[in-house]
Amino acid sequence: MKNKVGREIPEEFLQNGVEVFQGQYYRDNYEYTKAAPTVRAYVKPDRNKLQNSLRETILALNLKDGMTLSFHHHFRNGDYICAQVMEIIHELGIKNLFICASSLGKAQANLVPMLEDGTITGISTSGVRDEIGRAISEGKLAQPAWIRSHGGRVRAIETGEIKIDVAFIGAASCDVYGNASGKGGKSECGVLSYADVDAKYADQVVVITDNVVPGVNMPASIKGIDVDYVVKVDQVGDPAKIAGGAIRMTKDPRELKMAAYCAKVVAATQWFKDGFSFQTGAGGASLAVTQFLRSYMDEANIKMGWGMGGITEPMVDMLHQGYIRALLDDQAFDIPAVKSVHSDPTHYEISCSEYANPLNKGAYVNYLDYVILGALEIDTNFNVNVVQGSDGLIQGAPGGHPDTAAGAKCTIIVAPLLRSRLATVRRELTSVTTPGESVDVLVTDYGIAVNPRRQDILQQLQKTDLPLCSIEELVETAEKICGRPEPIKFTDKVVALVEYRDGTLIDVIRQVKK
Amino acid sequence: MKNKVGREIPEEFLQNGVEVFQGQYYRDNYEYTKAAPTVRAYVKPDRNKLQNSLRETILALNLKDGMTLSFHHHFRNGDYICAQVMEIIHELGIKNLFICASSLGKAQANLVPMLEDGTITGISTSGVRDEIGRAISEGKLAQPAWIRSHGGRVRAIETGEIKIDVAFIGAASCDVYGNASGKGGKSECGVLSYADVDAKYADQVVVITDNVVPGVNMPASIKGIDVDYVVKVDQVGDPAKIAGGAIRMTKDPRELKMAAYCAKVVAATQWFKDGFSFQTGAGGASLAVTQFLRSYMDEANIKMGWGMGGITEPMVDMLHQGYIRALLDDQAFDIPAVKSVHSDPTHYEISCSEYANPLNKGAYVNYLDYVILGALEIDTNFNVNVVQGSDGLIQGAPGGHPDTAAGAKCTIIVAPLLRSRLATVRRELTSVTTPGESVDVLVTDYGIAVNPRRQDILQQLQKTDLPLCSIEELVETAEKICGRPEPIKFTDKVVALVEYRDGTLIDVIRQVKK
Question: Its catalytic activity (chains A, B) (predicted)?
Fold first, then answer.
């Protein structure tokens, strides 16, 4: 069955209420009863949650074949939690597990043999990168992986589409009551935003930390009342890889040019006024937008009301310099962000449901004025792919891309027209992540195209000296330079389902033919 | 059917899974699936939650006969929210409503005619005082009122025993996204701990404030993602009655004597060591304990790890003087507490579920070392009544009494032996609120009795010069002075059910015979 962005979704995946994508606001006003965990009550006082070892804890959980286990990715490439837990479970010989991760990457390379031997047969994740991305692309997972946006993952858990049996939550610190935080100790990750929904909806919740603190560990991102067990390990992660040092600002002239265009698009549109809200990504051009934005803000004599997202040093600097009144942080990308969220009283941790869940009563993405996002590919209908490489391998992550694009009043994609002789702007996407109806402006190094649906924005930009063009002109330029791309050959086997944030299917990804 | 404290519970109330009280830890390890609200999703961005008037908001809610509405009591005797909302609903002619309040008192006197005309036919509350207490005592409510502890209310909502259709949450401040707080504006109440469960479990949530703030209202006690409507009214309450000025420390020699005894009991028992946890009430003797505790703490060179509860100035002073490392606050009793929770980074707001819910994974009450509580009456089995006057009228509130008593390692009741020629220590209670098995020490002005179940505590106190005696001796002394009390005459009509925190019935209250 073809969906609203023209992608064919095989009928076999349209079961148990799963529908094809039907528009970004298809589920507005959708009514549902939230899922809820099964709780074992601790009426007796002074129960000791603190376990002696991770192995003992895992034995106490009474794991069974077919269960769903969850992990978060706040320790990023430095995460030791998922690897440690799964090695023990692997040894125990439990099979047919479903892993509900907020993201998977290099740190989870050890899962690949577990895909091959049937320990893990299902996965839900945002990022599917590196070894695990390659394994899924190659069809090593028994069932197709669910690729979900950050908001979509929360939605799937809150609606009950995913039922988590056990959440394993790595934390930089925890007290004996189970109050856990991204602050303190040798493995600070800043926030625990993605794990919030896991703690609230999983039947059993384990906090794993290398830093058990005395007294009450407040303020806590994860509340002790939701936690069954606390266990101390030697190390939750590799600090050097958890939060990288400060990200260096790009000096690439092409990226700087695009960043300058983006800032001008923002400054020339109607939502650029005191109190505006803004999110930008951590890519070179996206990040560089902030430095150009400052002068426009000075000129207009306005402040940003709030900045949101994965937070990086440039946003932290703007907060501390008074350009931004508040930062809403669902992921700390670097050490300055980690330090700031623990010390600046106007830098707030928010849960991922607050950030991006499409089916609550109004996530912050709904109130974004501007978001600046990247793209691996974008087609002439402004549909964007951020998941699959043009070689067919899964190598990206929707992250908050579809969520912020749907919510923001002005969604700007910034991407170079070409990347090492591959066109970014194309007639056909390898797969669709974010529908074009939620994308408003495309900024490239060859010109700026406005989605024809947004005549309001077009009119405002026509008053500037920005190099406006149509997206057809961009695709023609790209084709002139690198020709039309050879279609990649796929087998019939579907290896991943690309879910839109509301639970509908926006695309499927097939195994690359070797 | 007789329950474990010997009270007769009529069979008609033992339906739909309601059982008689069977011991304080009867439901330990009880497994249940939490309730969850029905949510109407706000997928479309930028929905305006801000309403024009309270009346319009109430009309938008589509209220129906028989619904359950909830209110919190953080504005205490100054609350205008419940009165304003219910006046409008009364005018609309909606009937047969169930009011799930965290407490009711003087500020809700206008509900009395609504009990009489069938607008309100059921009530769940902790406190039932003043006019509304009298009306219920006189049998004016169609169904018996449910008297619940603070922890019991959260439990009843989280298990689904109470399903809230609409929560009306008064707040000192709120932003347009629905993020609400007890801070800011002319009506500060400090915290919104009791409303936390309402926001999370009600189908529709309305925040009512007199202070809509620009930007993001963070940190927020109530999250915008749980809020449907925000409405501004002229005044949420009478600031003079919301948080009283500083409470004056008692100079009553009898109260001071009992306070000194309590402090010595604390200092002489094994849990008095660095990092101990402690809660005390706002009554004269309870409050005065803090001033005697200081010198014992100096002597032992120890600090309190955390203090909890309804927080008052003496506890705030101890925090600021370094005697306490952290305060956990579920209710701000006076202006110093309100100011401190908004300014001291070691004074934390906790939800009422974190405070006292018996059926989560371990509320803070479970980790209390000491709690000092009052009593209207206590019997020779150490059962306590804090709800019903010895004249038969409902005039108190369980509050956190049964919750903290069950959780604390050492539960101390402080009460004068006699109050204006009525004995506090008696052979028979007017009704039971807290079972004697959870009460360890009774401190009176005539001596100190230790529950025979606690030989460990008795042995420790025997090493002091405290005037120990048996509770039988105390009751005999009381009877010598004021004789045996005349039994009060009641009709057969049950006007209130006294629920133990775990959902079982510990007693029923009947209508007083005139």
Answer: citrate = oxaloacetate + acetate; citrate + acetyl-CoA = (3S)-citryl-CoA + acetate
Comparing CB atoms, the residue among B34, B306, B359 nearest residue A216 is: B306
Integer Cα distance of A38 and A165 in angstroms? 9
* CA distance linking residue A310 with residue A373, whole number of Å: 12
- The alpha-carbon radius of gyration of chain B (Å, integer) is 22
CB A82 within 8 A of CB A72: no
**Chain A interface disruption, residue of B216, B270, B403, most A CBs within 10 A:** B216
Inter-chain touch A361–B31, beta carbons under 8 Å = no
**Which run of H or of E encompasses B94?**
none
The predicted complex's ipTM stands at 0.97
Q: In this structure, which long-range contacts are made by residues B230-234, counting pairs with CB atoms below 8 Å and at least 24 apart in sequence? A: B230/B49, B230/B50, B230/B51, B230/B174, B230/B175, B230/B176, B230/B178, B230/B206, B231/B50, B231/B51, B231/B52, B231/B53, B231/B54, B231/B56, B231/B57, B231/B206, B231/B207, B232/B50, B233/B54, B233/B80, B233/B84, B233/B208, B233/B209, B234/B210
With an 8 Å Cβ cutoff, is A363 touching chain B?
Answer: yes
Contact A376/A389 with Cβ under 8 angstroms? yes
**Predicted confidence band at B369 (pLDDT cuts at 50, 70, 90)?**
very high
Min mean pLDDT across A115-129, A277-291, A424-438, B308-322 is at A277-291
Q: For residue range B244-294, what is the model confidence (pLDDT) as tens digits?
A: 766 778 899 999 999 999 999 999 999 999 999 999 988 888 889 998 999
Determine, for residues A215 and B409 on separate chains, whether the beta-carbon distance falls below 8 Å: no
Q: What is the rounded end-to-end Cα distance, in angstroms, of chain B?
A: 27
**DSSP SS3 for A472:** helix
A219–B348 CB contact, under 8 Å? yes
Residue B338 pLDDT: 95
Alpha helices by DSSP H, A306-418:
313-320, 335-343, 352-356, 401-407
Task: Say if the Cβ atoms of A41 and B359 lie within 8 Å.
Answer: yes
Q: Which residues contact B480 (CB under 8 A, 6 or more apart)?
A: none
* Interval B438-495: pLDDT, tens: 999 999 999 999 999 999 999 999 999 999 999 999 999 999 999 988 889 999 999 9
- Residues across chain A: 514
B45 touches chain A (CB under 8 A): yes
- Interface list for B 251-280 with A (CB within 8 A): 275
Statement: residue A245 has pLDDT above 70? no
Q: Would you tell me which residues 190-229 of chain B have a C-beta closer than 8 angstroms to some C-beta of chain A? A: 205, 214-216, 218-219, 223-228
Bridge partner list, A388:
A394
Alpha helices in B9-149 (DSSP H): 54-60, 81-92, 112-116, 130-137
Mean pLDDT of all residues in A377-382? 98
Q: How many alpha carbons fall within 13 Å on the CB side of residue B205?
A: 31
pLDDT reported for residue A129? 87
Each residue's pLDDT tens digit, A418-476: 998 899 999 999 999 999 999 999 999 999 999 999 999 999 999 999 999 999 999 99
Structural contact between residues A66 and A94, judged by C-beta atoms closer than 8 angstroms: no
Cβ–Cβ below 8 Å for B215 and A360: no
How would you class A513 by CB atoms within 10 Å of its CB: exposed for 0-12, middle for 13-18, buried for 19 or more? exposed
CB contact under 8 A, B46 and A215: no
B contacts of A325 (beta carbons < 8 Å)? 215
- Please enumerate in sequence order all residues whose Cβ is within 8 A of that of B22, keeping only pairs 6 or more positions apart, or say none: B3, B4, B504
- Measured distance CA(A217)–CA(B179) in Å, rounded: 24
- Report yes or no: A501 and A358 within 8 Å, Cβ to Cβ: yes
What domains are defined for chain A? 47-242 (3.40.1080.10), 253-488 (3.40.1080.10)
Cβ within 8 Å, pair A41-B35: no
Partners of A372 in beta bridges: A280, A412
